[in-house]
């Protein structure tokens, strides 16, 4: 009985995806693990090939681009707040949301 219900649901989902045409499913980039992405793409292909689009809601593109422009490599730089004498931040909440807040808060607390 269970397999028949599962097969019926699979058939209905395939039919809906097929009739919808060009299906896109949007997900946050970091919310799916590597294996979950692989399984998700396999599932999408099995129901008609919907496309998985992932985005980064907190993008570090600007930081990478600045590093590439000035240092020749598009990387997120590493910071050592525990070695700083003075920290001035303009819109970068390094203790709350910016790049690696847990690491930065630990460094900041070391010398406080």
Walk me through what this model shows:
This protein is mainly alpha-helical. It has helices spanning 2-20, 34-46, 61-71, 101-110, and strands at residues 24-28, 51-55. It has a two-stranded parallel sheet. Strand 1 (24-28), helix 2 (34-46) and strand 2 form a beta-alpha-beta unit. The longest helix is centred in the N-terminal third of the chain and has 19 residues, at 2-20. It is elongated, with a radius of gyration of 22 Å. The chain starts with a helix and ends with a helix.
Structural class: mainly alpha
Order of helices and strands: HEHEHH
> What is the percentage of strand-forming residues?
5-15%
- Spatial order of strands in the largest sheet: 1-2
Count of the domains? 2
Helix percentage: 40-55%
Number of strands: 2
The coarse overall form would be elongated
> Major beta sheet, specifics?
2 strands, parallel
User: What is Rg?
Assistant: 22 Å
Number of helical elements: 4
The overall average pLDDT, rounded, is 81
- Please give the alpha-carbon distance between the first and last residues: 64 Å
Which segments are poorly predicted (pLDDT under 50) over 5 or more consecutive residues?
A: none
């Amino acid at each position: 009985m269970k397999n028949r219900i599962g097969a019926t649901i699979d058939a209905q989902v395939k039919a809906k995806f097929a009739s919808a045409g060009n299906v896109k499913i949007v997900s946050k980039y970091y919310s799916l693990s590597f294996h979950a992405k692989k399984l998700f793409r396999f599932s999408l292909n099995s129901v008609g090939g919907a496309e998985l689009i992932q985005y980064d809601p907190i993008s570090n593109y600007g930081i990478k681009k600045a590093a590439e422009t000035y240092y020749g490599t598009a990387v997120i730089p590493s910071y050592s707040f525990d070695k700083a004498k003075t920290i001035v931040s303009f819109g970068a909440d390094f203790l709350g949301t910016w790049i690696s807040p847990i690491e930065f808060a630990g460094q900041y607390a070391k010398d406080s």
